[in-house]
């Protein structure tokens, strides 16, 4: 059940649509901050948390059936994939000398990350200033945690979790205290105690403060990576969704990022970016690119509906939107040498709240160059590849596939760096009214292991930069799943081209991402 390509597509769908679970089975973590109201699942080397509550989940085509050792995912009545389950950690059965259960002090996130909201309260937890997606106060109200965790408690729990359950890194976060320095200092003290007890890599999350010396202070406390979460680069969204945090200008975050990268290094500073808040897509991508270029990893995640919040019944963004954004951010990460697996600790290393780490492998394969054909030799090879595939291999055309559209199309080529020859091609041309069409995607035998996706992404980039509204393509049946994985969707129209059935697919470019 499920090839690697199907699995990645499935992970995106699950995080967007959620999954219905068997009555009485483990419901995962409910309420609070972080990956709440979800179920953790394993797909090979990747792990994700999937929403299990909210209106969207009730309508989800996906259901999870488990027997305690394995789980099977059904789409309607068809089994589509198996998934691994994460066992209840053994340290959950323990408690401190004064009777506090360990799981009220820290929780297992994913398969090997110990996470704790060190201060389970926020000075902005009021109607006027609270972040509308955050449920930090609900866990304490439900008696699932203690208000403030001490360094000694966290060190004790971390040691047990490392010894009994093999955790490999720690994440500490907190609500914003009235004086932000107080909360950051407390997390620093907690990090120091954990480091002394375990030596584990530690990630700490907080808002930027005026004193740039905070980064060196945390480094001295034993902190290995930090996260300063903007949630959105769109100031209008920030003012509406995070009214308290929005008072801290975006420029203050980037000032903090600059100093933090100097102290912790590239790939060890991150920011959480939530998709599905009504943000402008181009602003979001531009902000992600800016972060990446300076060495900050933008951890892009779909909106997670959390009970007790204004977004409790809001639908996460559609899978096609997430796939498109993942592809673009992953490509920029690759170009700048940032990778999730190189992060020492925290959300980026865990990766469970996003499918972005799985998309990092979908960037331009090593040893290839993707570009628009310019020279006469490049154009000659571009036409040669098309003839080899569409005339000689597939027999769709008798002698040549060149037509009138080639007079004004954009010819995109993939070059094998070793041989310096063109081995893959695609073209795109305008239809009018801001619409474009792509076609003639062809890759020579021996090179069909990833370069095709890179060619399509470059075509998408070219038409987007030219103000495209709808990008169309006529796709043969065997390639429909491939294009769906890249963010395209079927329109329902079919046509017969040279006796071969083709399915019309499209990618929609809208200025606003809506729920």
What is the count of structural domains?
3
**Main sheet summary:** 7 strands, mixed
Q: How does CATH name the architecture of the largest domain?
A: Alpha-Beta Barrel
What is the tally of beta strands? Answer: 20
Task: Give the overall silhouette.
Answer: elongated
Quaternary structure classification: single chain
- The residue ranges in which pLDDT falls below 50 over 5 or more consecutive positions are 27-33, 510-515
* Helical fraction: 25-40%
Strand order of the largest sheet: 7-8-9-10-11-12-13
Mean pLDDT: 88
Structure in words:
This protein is an alpha/beta fold and 515 residues long. It contains 15 helices and 20 strands. β19 (489-497) and β20 (500-508) form a beta hairpin. The longest helix is centred in the middle third of the chain and has 19 residues, at 180-198. It is elongated.
Helix and strand layout, with pairings?
Layout: H1 4-17, E1 20-21, E2 38-43, E3 46-51, H2 55-58, E4 62-66, E5 71-75, E6 78-85, E7 107-109, E8 113-119, H3 136-141, H4 151-165, E9 169-174, H5 180-198, E10 202-205, H6 214-221, E11 225-227, H7 235-241, H8 250-264, E12 269-275, H9 281-293, E13 296-302, H10 319-335, H11 347-350, H12 356-359, E14 368-372, H13 376-393, E15 410-416, E16 421-432, E17 435-443, H14 451-464, E18 470-476, H15 480-485, E19 489-497, E20 500-508
Parallel strand pairs: 1-4, 8-9, 9-10, 10-11, 11-12, 12-13, 17-18
Antiparallel strand pairs: 2-3, 2-6, 4-5, 5-6, 7-8, 14-15, 15-16, 16-17, 18-20, 19-20
Helix pairs in contact: 4-5, 5-6, 9-10
């Amino acid at each position: 059940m499920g090839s690697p390509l199907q699995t990645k597509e499935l992970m995106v769908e699950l995080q967007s649509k959620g999954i219905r679970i068997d009555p009485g089975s483990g419901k995962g973590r409910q309420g609070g901050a972080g990956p709440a109201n979800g179920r953790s699942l394993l797909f090979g080397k990747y792990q994700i948390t999937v929403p299990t509550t909210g209106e969207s989940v009730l309508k989800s085509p996906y259901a999870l059936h488990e027997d305690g050792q394995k789980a099977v995912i059904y789409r309607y009545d068809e089994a589509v994939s198996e998934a691994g389950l994460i066992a209840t950690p053994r340290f959950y059965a323990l408690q401190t000398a004064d009777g506090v259960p360990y799981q009220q002090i820290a929780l297992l996130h994913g398969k090997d990350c110990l996470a704790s909201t060190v201060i389970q309260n926020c000075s902005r937890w009021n109607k006027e200033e609270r972040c509308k997606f955050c449920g930090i106060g609900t866990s304490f109200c439900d008696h699932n945690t203690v208000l403030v965790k001490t360094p000694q408690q966290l060190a004790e729990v971390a040691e047990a979790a490392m010894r009994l359950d093999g955790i490999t890194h720690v994440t500490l976060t907190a609500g914003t205290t009235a004086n932000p320095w107080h909360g950051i200092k407390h997390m620093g003290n907690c990090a120091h105690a954990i480091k002394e007890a375990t030596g584990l890599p530690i990630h700490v999350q907080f808002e930027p403060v005026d004193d740039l010396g905070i980064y060196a202070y945390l480094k001295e406390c034993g902190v290995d990576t930090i996260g300063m979460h903007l949630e959105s680069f769109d100031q209008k969204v920030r003012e509406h969704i995070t009214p308290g945090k929005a008072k801290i200008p975006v420029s203050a975050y980037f000032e903090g990022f600059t100093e933090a990268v100097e102290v912790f290094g590239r790939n060890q500073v991150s920011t959480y970016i939530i998709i599905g808040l009504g943000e402008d897509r181009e602003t979001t991508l531009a902000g992600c690119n800016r972060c990446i270029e300076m060495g900050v990893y933008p951890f892009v995640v779909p909106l997670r509906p959390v009970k007790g919040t204004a977004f409790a019944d809001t639908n996460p963004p559609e899978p096609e939107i997430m796939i498109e954004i993942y592809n673009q951010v992953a490509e920029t990460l690759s170009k700048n040498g940032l990778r999730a697996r190189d992060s020492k600790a925290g959300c980026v290393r865990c990766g469970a709240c996003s499918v972005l780490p799985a998309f990092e492998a979908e960037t331009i394969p090593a040893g290839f160059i993707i570009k628009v054909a310019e020279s006469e030799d490049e154009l000659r090879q571009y036409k040669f590849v098309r003839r080899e595939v569409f005339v000689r291999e597939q027999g769709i055309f008798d002698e040549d596939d060149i037509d009138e559209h080639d007079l004004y199309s954009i010819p995109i080529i993939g070059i094998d760096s070793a041989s310096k020859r063109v081995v893959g091609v695609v073209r795109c041309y305008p239809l009018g009214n801001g619409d474009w069409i792509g076609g003639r995607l062809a890759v020579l035998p021996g090179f069909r292991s990833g370069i095709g996706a890179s060619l399509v992404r470059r075509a998408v980039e070219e038409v987007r930069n030219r103000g495209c509204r709808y990008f169309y393509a006529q796709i043969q049946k065997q390639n429909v799943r491939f294009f769906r994985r890249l963010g395209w969707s079927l329109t329902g129209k079919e046509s017969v081209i040279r006796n071969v059935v083709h399915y019309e697919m499209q990618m929609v470019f809208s200025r606003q991402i809506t729920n």
